[in-house]
Write a structure and sequence with these properties.
With 286 residues, the protein is of the alpha/beta class. It is 38% helix and 25% strand. The chain contains 11 helices and 13 strands. A 9-stranded mixed sheet has the order 5-4-1-6-11-8-12-10-9, sandwiched between helices. The protein has a two-stranded antiparallel ribbon with strand order 2-3. Helix 3 packs antiparallel against helix 4 and helix 8 packs across helix 9. It is globular.
């Protein structure tokens, strides 16, 4: 199954850090955010990856490319651990790049991959979400897709105070953690939300989604919204939501990006002890 990773956004919320580098290349601990997403896809057996880019995104291509000069220097210095890592990054998947020439929204970015995807089911993974679990999140969605025979989106229960940040499903639980989606509401107020199950950046679509992306018109800000196409898909073909297993880190805002960096650092044996020392230092100041 092919994977589409939209990465053409301007990263305005992270200015000035993203003035000269893609937001997808901002480090979370010691890896760029997009690498976590690619590694999740590869861990699920997906090695045919399409990244939708835009102007100023060359650093993404360079990161996943082979770096002969860097490898030579690491080999000469005897740094075999770093050498092995940069070689792994360059060889873990076949990555293709398609440029979104105009900033016309997430729906349009996915539509740019239509020719490469063809008439096959495919996955979409957004870089704003990092999900950690022994069984990768996108792999769980593929299992649900094969089980239900229809498109599946990842959903997570979120508190009412954050519900306005997400698309929210209206649906009925039909099996284990799988919900039959009856409707979608984009960024509702807590009072208008049909549930507390928010859509996160993991999807497995039948190729029909391209038909619906071509039918929708531009929405707010002149952008083509994926949610609008998903609503058509839901009513015409059927759509399911999977309440996945795992820890999700929303890195779409500065505060959440910092939280993700701290949380993932605490999972690292080489960093956890020093971070505990900092935690103790703040406790003493209080």
């Amino acid at each position: 199954m092919k994977v589409v990773i939209p990465a053409a956004g301007l990263g305005i919320r992270f200015l000035p850090a993203t003035k000269a580098q893609p937001k997808e290349m901002l480090p979370v601990v010691d890896k760029p955010a997009i690498q976590y997403v690619v590694e999740e896809a590869v861990a699920s057996g997906m090695t045919d990856i399409i990244i939708i880019t835009g102007r100023g995104k060359r650093a993404i291509e360079d990161h996943f490319d082979k770096s002969y000069e860097l490898e030579h220097r690491l080999r000469e210095s005897g740094n075999s651990e770093a050498l092995s890592e940069v070689q792994r990054i360059a060889s873990m998947a076949d990555i293709f790049y398609i440029r979104q020439k105009e900033q016309l929204g997430l729906g349009h970015a996915i539509l740019c991959a239509k020719k490469h995807v063809g008439n096959e089911p495919f996955a979409v993974m957004l870089g704003d979400d990092i999900v950690v679990n022994e069984r990768p999140c996108i792999g769980q969605l593929v299992d649900a897709f094969e089980d239900m025979g229809s498109s599946v989106v990842g959903v997570e229960q979120v508190p009412k105070s954050r519900i306005h940040r997400y698309g929210v499903i209206k649906g009925k639980r039909v099996k284990d953690e799988i919900y039959k989606v009856e409707d979608l509401v984009e960024k509702p107020s807590p009072e208008e939300a049909p549930s507390d199950l928010a859509i996160i950046g993991r999807y497995v679509f039948e190729p029909d989604i391209f038909t619906f992306l071509e039918k929708i018109g531009p929405g707010k800000g002149g952008e083509y919204q994926l949610t609008d196409a998903m609503r058509l898909l839901c009513h015409k073909k059927g759509l399911y939501g999977l309440r996945f297993k795992g820890r999700r880190f929303d890195i779409g805002s500065k505060a959440d990006w910092v939280k993700a960096t701290i949380a993932l650092s605490m999972d690292r044996k080489d960093l956890a002890d020093e971070l505990r020392d900092i935690h103790d230092m703040f406790d003493k100041k209080r």
